[in-house]
């Protein structure tokens, strides 16, 4: 049976968990290690660790903090932010990451996806796709990079297909229009990326209610749901999320 995964996301800036709206107006949300331990205890299936300013600041992900978080938990940990090479991916895997996420570097040099997949296997490679609505694009969505700051003039759905062909193991689409709003995921974006790529897809950007998590799976066709604000500010617990999805007939791990 394929279980629907619940994935809290630790957005990291200056060594702290933060959360904003549309990637700006950041609020402090606590210590990364303490949050990671809490989420594992509550039943999270995986954890995401995203160094949200690494690419913008032109640096690598904070390795020491990755090591601390990885050592504190036993569930899978996906780490992204500032990953530019196979060597960067190796450093993160050695530090304790289970999977590595890439975004801007892959858009700049798509063959990096193939290089990483060959080196460590597709299941360890997550390609994050940040997109925003743009009616001039064939799908209605434009790819953006550098933490959502830079539009690149490329159709986000076509990029998802390219990522699949290059060897990505999983896709993490985030709508810049809904991120942090708690108004719900962009179901159209999630569904289009799933249908176009056929890869496992993690819904991201906009979770605010239990109903949003359910809709991401049933309408957005996501294989996993990632959320930050609702978990960080203790609005919804992971246990409550799993109980709700189970009651609605979706398979989740107990």
Secondary structure elements and their pairing?
Blueprint: E1 5-13, E2 16-21, E3 24-28, H1 32-42, E4 47-51, H2 63-72, E5 77-80, H3 86-95, E6 99-102, H4 104-108, H5 111-120, E7 125-133, E8 141-145, E9 150-155, H6 156-166, E10 170-175, H7 187-197, E11 202-203, H8 210-218, E12 224-227, H9 229-232, H10 238-247
Parallel strand pairs: 1-4, 1-12, 4-5, 5-6, 6-7, 7-10, 11-12
Antiparallel strand pairs: 1-2, 2-3, 7-8, 8-9
Structure description:
- It is built from 10 helices and 12 strands.
- It has 254 residues and is an alpha/beta fold.
- The protein has one domain (5-247): Aldolase class I (TIM Barrel), CATH 3.20.20.
- Strands 1, 2, 3, 4, 5, 6, 7, 8, 9, 10, 11 and 12 form a 12-stranded mixed beta sheet that branches.
- Helix 6 packs parallel to helix 7.
Characteristics of this structure?
single chain; 254 residues; alpha/beta; TIM Barrel; 12-stranded mixed sheet; globular
Overall 3D form: globular
Order of helices and strands: EEEHEHEHEHHEEEHEHEHEHH
Overall mean pLDDT score?
93
User: Structural class per helix/strand content?
Assistant: alpha/beta
The oligomerization state is: single chain
Per CATH, the architecture is: Alpha-Beta Barrel
Secondary structure tally: strands:
12
What is the CATH T-level topology? TIM Barrel
- Taking all Cα atoms into account, the compactness measure Rg is 16 Å
- Helix coverage percent: 25-40%
Number of domains: 1
In whole angstroms, the N-to-C terminal distance is 13 Å
Number of helices: 10
